[in-house]
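Reproducibility note. Readers wishing to regenerate the assembly model reported in the main text can use the exact inputs given here. Chain order matters: entities are listed in the order in which they were concatenated for prediction.
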Amino acid sequence: MELDAILLGHNQFIGVDHFSQDRARSRTQIFSETQKIIEIVKEFNQLGGGGMMMSTHPRIKPVVESINNDPQLSKNLNLYPLIPYAQGYIRRANEKGILGMISDSLAPADAKTKLKISFSAGINFLKKDIMNLLPTIIDIEMLQFKDSKVNAVILHNVLTDLALAFQSRNLFEFYIDYIKDTYHVEPGFGTMNFCRLVNSFDKWEIKKPLILASFNKAGFQMNPSQVECEHCLKEHDVKLIAMSTLASGYLKPQEAYEYLFSLPKVSSVVVGVSSKEHVQETIGLIKSNMGKKNHEYFI
Amino acid sequence: MNEQISVGVIGMGKMGILHSGILNSMENVQLVAVADNQTFITKAITTLVPSVAAYADYHEMIANENLDVIYIATPTGLHTKIASECIINDIPFFVEKPLGTSVKECKLLVEELKSRPVINMVGYCKRFSSTFKKAKEVIDSRRLGNLIYFNSSAYVSQLFSRGSGWRSNKKESGGGVLNTVSVHAIDLLLWYFQEVEFIQGNIKQHYSESVDDFAHSYIKFKGGLEGYFDTSWSIRNYRLPEIKIELHCENGMLVVTDDYLKIFSDENEKWTTFYKQDLDMGVFFDLGGPEYSFEDEHMIASVRCNKKTEIDVFEGVRVQQFVEGLYLSANNKCSIEGAELWN
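Running the prediction on these inputs yields the following structure tokens for the assembly.
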């Protein structure tokens, strides 16, 4: 599988903005129509953006359907699901407790069991063991992408970091095998703890899969520190998808991409663009900065 | 005290899992046991971390394990009861916010602590959030002059139908939005502005049967500062819980949220903005936000050095008094004086 160099993120379309909640609210209004989102996606794709990363946020379902139905996008755009949609689970857990959240989350599978999810002994059996439950949660989340061109499936940072906190090597191995065997695409892990994740893979002697982590000039969400993340990237054989490259809109694109492409290895960059002009500016800047550095690791 | 700190966590909901993860990732801290009567959750933890002992009954955990700290992350109705058991067993405890469901039960805990002191902390983690922490420095420095007026809110889009979990049951939660989502903001207001002179409030139920979905209040602090606090968990377009405090002073103003601190000074007629991107410098492990990691680090360091924490049970009681004062004001349709709140 060839990883796309520039991936379109989707936070700007669904009211997520780690810089300004006010800006998030105004964008939610703009992008309440799916067509407005698709226009940006098309522009991005036409200018050479090959992939889009997306969660299973409710707003995204019609976007995936529109992409599937578009002759150009369905052929030329690879999708990178980021699962599960953590905020939805957290909200349900807040309201109904963890067990209530699990029951609710399994509900859509009931209707669609015929597709591919086999319940060997029903929902109660699944609830008894997390290792039984995980494949079902993954399958439910992936239902949305059953007709899409998927390139990699990334585990959301909340789950990656929880497994990392518990040093649960089993869970990482399980996820890697399950995504490879079931979906025949590359598994990846989102994280807020890049160094610890890389070091843990080394310790467990797991061949490092794709890692989605924050890398930006401001050092924002680079833990335990910017210096240590840069050092770790330099010293280890890592396939990195860089996110929060503008530190959630804090940095100016020019300085942000200059920094990013001064790093030794970046396989792919997630960008958040919210207008056609913004798409043109961003892709132009990335291409020119890539060119300057003659980035040998860039695919 | 051993070099290695052994921790037990009671209540494996979202916050119990989060603290377990953070604590387990700290150096020289070991998560040795978890307790919850829902065995699916404890079994999941032991599947992931085989070295952790799982208990369906927390009493057994306290009796069997040699714990240096206990984290209490159960539904609110059990907080003070379990904290009392920690005191009896001389075990330092961390209790999630809010401290309890009533001032009465919280005050009993304070009395117990007076006779048998143990290190304790309440989970008001926003004090470790970089923007709110910076705002505290600015307010305390009085560089904007005396405090005159404030306007504040805590909103989240969470509940738009009748809730079904323990949070909707007043006996277990101690209240609706006011005693769950809003207590972080109330703690910040009390941390910034200290003692309340009076409070007037109103509450409204719309989606919930027995708890408040909206609360509105007007507060006067000793020293003259007056202003509003408004809160709801049923406001649209707030994907994440959001706290905003706007403060007007003699020589300028400030606005603080989770994302930024903006300061306007009359003297040079300009805004200075500190984004969290300016203030956050990385954390040893991030699971759900740096503030939770700093909070747990503070608790563990306090236990290690046998030192009082910065957010002990007394601070938790103050928040509870504010909440109860607001309910009282809403029910009796009158102002509640500070003296009534604190005595």
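We highlight two features of this model. Chain A has a mean pLDDT of 84. Residues 6-85+152-293 of chain A form a domain with the TIM Barrel fold (CATH 3.20.20.100).
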